[in-house]
């Protein structure tokens, strides 16, 4: 059962392999399910469409994403586009079958479904009994080819959960060690490999693995994959254990925006790991598709494991799953407009301006003045998420065998102190590099070119967004989709992550973290019409407390405005913001403007660091 540690090394030198190393990017749009909107009065709005005028050029396609609620209009060049009415079969025949031929000729192949939670990744990869997914279709073709060539097919099935790898074909929760040999080849120590010669054997083995995969109910998906599931189909010639080639079929866990999922505790930790590893994957794809000399495989367990299947002479396909529609309840980006206290806002602006000017940061102040708040001001139309998943118990649908508490209990040991940091274990000459740091975000790459181009801009230029000679447009699209999937097309849940002092400052989530429990319990916005009166509070201390609370609130607001609108140079001039942080902030705000100081945690800062950062900025005012 154990995987022999022998694979052919990917070849990397030829021009051909340069092209092969690029990741082909196709989009699959999933249909709107009638079960998804409870309020039928809210009609879905199409938000992904194809620009026919661009279609057919070098087989690429321009996809136009729009969102009526945010006037977002973007256009991305992709390798192919599959509409709602296109079946998995079509994707398989056009995109996947060429990769399968390759594994019989020494090339590895990788197909992964990428997208926001609920966008149809599992549906595409795993499928159902009635609508077989890419995994089943691939296995069927591999078996046919084995029969013709006398080769043997074997499968492994594992999941990467919280940056640990588990064998799904073992009855027990068997952790697999990821080890490097002296040549830098990665080995999955102890991973099962099961010989498969018929489709019924395959179904049996795969469904037992699917039962073990970790899924859970989240605020955005009733049965959400909490791990990346990797099915590996290995082909050998039958006479030796040397692997001819292998095909990785990956159902990635979905991007999640935790202000919408309402994830807490374990779900939140899972989600952080999911997002980090997806980000690492997007960095790898970006590096491959832009011929970067360094490909950052080692930034997550997932990319490290896939090192020999992404790049080199491996052929990779990313199926980016999108919602084609958008309905008011699903829209992102909406939150209650923050009530302003204009007088104090102006005061704080002028204070900040004075401070910045004193530091020679006049551009920042102009920008702050000119931009005002970049934050959207629409109010959510509904506070409830209305997605309902069809509950099917078919063998190939996600099962809830290990959901919620069950999953939490089963994995409790994993969450005590996070992954080990910078230690290594040696075993049979193989080294497990436990490099992974809790805050992967601190390793975010510095120069991520922004792929976004407005639709209008692109039309003005009247030329393809990416050069047809390389696939950088596709890699840009990956980044854009990484953003887009989260930013525009994911369902919305207004559940935000509850913070320690939220109950105290629930009217102003922006500043909740900075209010100590001892700040006055009365509402902090108690100004009368002229902004001066204080209802129900008379003592000087009450007034002082209320004023200072409002002041803090305004300052936080100003600070966030600044972070959302300042240039990199301007950000660098603030205390506590260096090159890396500035770049991370710029990247982050492209996805979602910062609404709360807590959003800074998404760039890898702890709440203490966020606190310190703000305090340093605030202190600067009085320097
Ligand atoms: N092309 C499709 N046609 C019909 N139904 C679909 C399609 N794609 C997805 N669905 C349905 O949408 C729901 C969500 O799909 P799925 O579970 O595959 O999403 P996911 O991207 O895997 O989510 P997560 O990342 O949370 O695991 C399911 O009920 C699925 O059956």
UniProtKB/TrEMBL annotation:
Residues 22-346 form the Kinesin motor domain. GO terms for cellular component: microtubule; microtubule associated complex. The keyword Plastid does not apply. One of its GO terms (biological process) is spindle elongation. This is Kinesin-like protein. Residues 1-20, 363-392 are annotated as: Disordered. It comes from the Eukaryota. Belongs to the TRAFAC class myosin-kinesin ATPase superfamily. Kinesin family. KIN-10 subfamily. ATP binds at residues 115-122. It comes from Coptis chinensis. InterPro entries: HhH_motif, Kinesin-like_fam, Kinesin_motor_CS, Kinesin_motor_dom, Kinesin_motor_dom_sf, P-loop_NTPase, RuvA_2-like.
């Amino acid at each position: 059962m154990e995987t022999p540690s022998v694979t052919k090394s990917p070849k990397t030198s030829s021009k051909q392999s340069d092209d092969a190393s690029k990741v082909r990017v196709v989009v699959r749009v999933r249909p709107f399910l009638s079960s998804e909107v409870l309020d039928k009065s809210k009609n879905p709005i199409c938000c992904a469409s194809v620009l026919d005028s661009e279609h057919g050029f070098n087989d690429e396609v321009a996809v136009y994403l729009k969102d009526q609620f945010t006037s977002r209009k973007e256009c991305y060049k992709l390798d192919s586009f599959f509409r709602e009415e296109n079946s998995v079969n079509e994707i398989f025949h056009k995109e996947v079958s060429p990769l399968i031929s390759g594994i019989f000729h020494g090339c590895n192949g990788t197909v992964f479904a990428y997208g926001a939670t609920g966008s149809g990744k599992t549906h595409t990869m795993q499928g159902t009994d009635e609508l077989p997914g890419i995994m089943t279709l691939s296995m069927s073709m591999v078996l046919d080819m084995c029969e013709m060539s006398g080769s043997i097919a074997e499968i492994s099935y594992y999941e990467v959960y919280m940056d640990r790898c588990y064998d799904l074909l073992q009855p027990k929760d068997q952790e697999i060690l990821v080890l490097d040999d002296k040549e830098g080849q990665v080995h999955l120590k102890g991973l099962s490999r099961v010989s498969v010669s018929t489709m019924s054997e395959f179904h049996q083995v795969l469904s037992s693995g699917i039962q073990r995969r970790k899924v859970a109910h989240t605020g955005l998906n009733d049965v959400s994959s909490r791990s990346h599931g990797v099915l590996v189909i290995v082909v050998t010639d039958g006479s030796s254990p040397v692997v001819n080639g292998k095909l990785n079929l990956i159902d990635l866990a979905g991007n999640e925006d935790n202000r919408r999922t309402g994830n807490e505790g374990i779900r939140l930790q899972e989600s952080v790991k999911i997002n980090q590893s997806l980000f690492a994957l997007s960095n790898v794809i970006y590096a491959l598709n832009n011929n970067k000399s360094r490909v950052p495989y080692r930034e997550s367990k997932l990319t490290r494991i896939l090192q020999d299947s992404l790049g080199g002479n491996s052929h990779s396909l990313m199926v980016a799953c999108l919602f084609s529609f958008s309905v008011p309840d699903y829209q992102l980006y909406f939150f209650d407009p923050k009530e302003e206290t204009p007088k104090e806002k102006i005061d704080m602006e002028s204070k900040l301006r004075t401070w910045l000017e004193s530091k020679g940061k006049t551009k920042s102040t102009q920008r702050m003045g000119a931009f005002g708040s970049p934050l959207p001001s629409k109010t959510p139309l509904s506070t409830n998420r209305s997605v309902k998943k069809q509950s099917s118990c078919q063998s190939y649908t996600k099962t809830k065998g290990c959901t919620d508490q069950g999953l939490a209990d089963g994995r409790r040991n994993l969450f005590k102190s996070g992954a080990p940091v910078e230690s290594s274990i040696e075993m049979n000459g193989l080294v497990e590099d436990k490099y992974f740091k809790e805050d992967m975000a601190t390793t975010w790459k510095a120069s991520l070119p922004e792929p976004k181009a407005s639709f209008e801009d692109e039309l003005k230029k009247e030329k393809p967004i990416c050069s047809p000679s390389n696939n950088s447009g596709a890699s840009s699209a990956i980044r854009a989709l990484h953003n887009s999937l989260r930013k525009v097309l994911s369902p919305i849940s207004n559940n935000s992550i509850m913070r320690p002092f939220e109950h105290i400052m629930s009217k102003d989530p922006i500043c909740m973290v900075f209010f100590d429990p001892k700040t006055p319990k009365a509402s902090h916005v108690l100004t009368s019409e002229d902004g001066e009166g204080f209802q129900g509070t008379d003592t000087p201390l009450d007034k002082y407390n209320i004023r200072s609370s409002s002041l803090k609130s305004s300052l936080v607001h100003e600070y966030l405005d600044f972070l959302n609108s300042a240039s990199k140079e301007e950000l660098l001039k603030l205390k506590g913001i260096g090159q890396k942080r500035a770049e991370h902030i710029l990247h982050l705000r492209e996805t979602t403007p910062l609404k709360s100081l807590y959003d800074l945690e998404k760039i890898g800062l702890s709440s203490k660091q966020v606190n310190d950062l703000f305090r340093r900025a605030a202190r600067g005012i009085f320097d």
